[in-house]
Amino acid sequence: MEKYSALGLLKHSLSNHENWPRLWHNPTPKKKYDIIIVGGGGHGLATAYYLAKNHGITNVAVLEKGWLGGGNTARNTTIVRSNYLWDESARLYEHALKLWEGLSQDLNYNVMFSQRGVYHLCHTLQDIRDNERLVSANRLNGIDNEMIDAEQLQREIPLLDCSRNTRFPVLGASVQRRAGNARHDAVAWGYARAAAALGVDLIQQCEVVDMVIENGAITGVKTRQHGVIKADRVGCVAAGNSGVLAKMAGFELPVESHPLQALVSEPIKPVLDTVVMSNHVHGYMSQSDKGDLVIGAGIDSWVGYGQRGSYSIIEHTIQAIVEMFPAVSRVRMNRQWGGIVDTCPDACPIITATPVRNLFFNCGWGTGGFKATPGSGHVFAETLALGKAAPLAEPFSMFRFHSGALIDEHGAAAVAH
Amino acid sequence: MLHIFCPHCGEYREEEEFRCKGQAHIARPLDPEACSDEEWGHFMFFRQNTRGQHRELWVHSTGCRKHFNVIRNTVTYEIEKVYLVGTKPETEGAAS
Ligand SMILES: Cc1cc2nc3c(=O)[nH]c(=O)nc-3n(C[C@H](O)[C@H](O)[C@H](O)COP(=O)(O)OP(=O)(O)OC[C@H]3O[C@@H](n4cnc5c(N)ncnc54)[C@H](O)[C@@H]3O)c2cc1C
Ligand SMILES: [Zn+2]
């Protein structure tokens, strides 16, 4: 792997940037691996990277049915934050945020992590109480978060309508200043490049269609393109398609897959240098470096695998955005798309052993797993290396839905993000 | 946008008038007290999450407010059948 540096940039400019090496190769799969990871999104690629880097396990393959990072990793609105309410989730997301803070250096790849802050607006007395509780819980866990009033909010975000003339006047907000955005594609590519450099095989266009299970233990996976590939352990990180993989292994998961949509406007001059979300009117917005406004919608209520949702959801979202930012009401929307998110009843992920020995799942991140990418990969790599849940992952077992030890982030999880 | 036939009203209406209530035909255990944690957890939270023909429960929430069942393909979103609660027509491919 060629190390990226200012000097390298200069060197390659002499040959008109025509000789940059490929980021990774496309190997033919071996017959057997120590560990197979199903799903080449950010989470799967991060898992492979940390398996190689932290645990010295490099006989690893990532099997991806499409192209690397083409799932939800490429479709999300890139909000990164760690201000979750409960101890278990706060620890997990804060672990991820700490990794984000050094990620570009670690991967030698610019993931454009920008700590521009994320605001949760409060429109009612109950919102204020909920956010004060959240801020206090976060601080007890050593996570930055603070309350500000409407006056200060208006000074910090001139575009936001904090007047009393709105239908749902803004009373204040909580703001996590270490939160922000990152470049989603760069995260997938950076992890892929670094994992490949450590010896991981990245196999694209390789769809897993069945699991090979003998005496209650997994011994390999059957793929559409390359037949059976054997492995000692298998980790599934397939987001919206997790339920389909679980069915192949003969069990159900407490997740359902729903379409989640987002849209971007035509590029405009810089107007918003942070991320604003409102649980109450149900919408959120940021502005990308290209200048387009990035707007997130909610999920459709029905199960869907089609990577597209209903128009009414977008309409509702735009109503919320115009309520918050009347100044953008005549900006035109450029593109709109959907991803399939695997939502869990308690709005927390599932990182777990399964009824099948040596088969592990990392899913249920639903509408908000991009922010967790480094942390998710880190703890899932540890889980796969140990053959049992890593300490940070322990509370997130699928069996919490039997014991009742749910981690109910619904209130604190706000809108889809 | 789905276009849904309400069997109670006898006409097609737009999706916004309806609400999807998830997987159909989930029977509440007859004797909840006798359930193990696993059985109860399974009833409460685990779902088929079918990719393909899916039986699901809908309610015409801003119309007649009555429930009915739908078989819908979760990939193409095509609605294949609408039927009344208490019935369960056979179709090829649909999971139970
Ligand atoms: C519109 C939208 C907005 C979002 N906004 C945010 C946000 O602002 N902040 C945030 O934190 N999160 C957000 N999310 C959620 C976030 O995108 C996901 O939680 C996260 O990207 C999941 O990463 P992943 O690597 O697990 O999934 P993916 O990137 O979806 O990767 C899973 C991969 O598995 C592959 N796969 C599936 N089945 C098979 C098979 N049988 N064989 C081989 N490969 C298979 C898929 O092709 C896919 O590439 C958003 C999601 C959407 C859709
Ligand atoms: Zn009706």
UniProtKB/TrEMBL annotation, chain A:
Its cofactor is FMN; FAD. Pfam families: DAO (PF01266). It catalyses: sarcosine + O2 + H2O = formaldehyde + glycine + H2O2; sarcosine + (6S)-5,6,7,8-tetrahydrofolate + O2 = (6R)-5,10-methylene-5,6,7,8-tetrahydrofolate + glycine + H2O2. Keywords: Cytoplasm, FAD, Flavoprotein, FMN, Nucleotide-binding, Oxidoreductase. Its main location: cytoplasm. InterPro entries: FAD-dep_OxRdtase, FAD/NAD-bd_sf, Rhodanese-like_dom, SoxB. Signal peptide: none annotated. GO terms for cellular component: cytoplasm. GO terms for biological process: tetrahydrofolate metabolic process. Belongs to the SoxB family. This is Sarcosine oxidase subunit beta. It comes from Parathalassolituus penaei.
From TrEMBL, chain B:
GO terms for biological process: tetrahydrofolate metabolic process. InterPro entries: SoxD, SoxD_sf. Gene3D superfamilies: Folate-binding superfamily. GO terms for molecular function: sarcosine oxidase activity. Transmembrane segments: none annotated. It holds the Pfam family SoxD. It comes from the Bacteria. This is Sarcosine oxidase subunit delta.
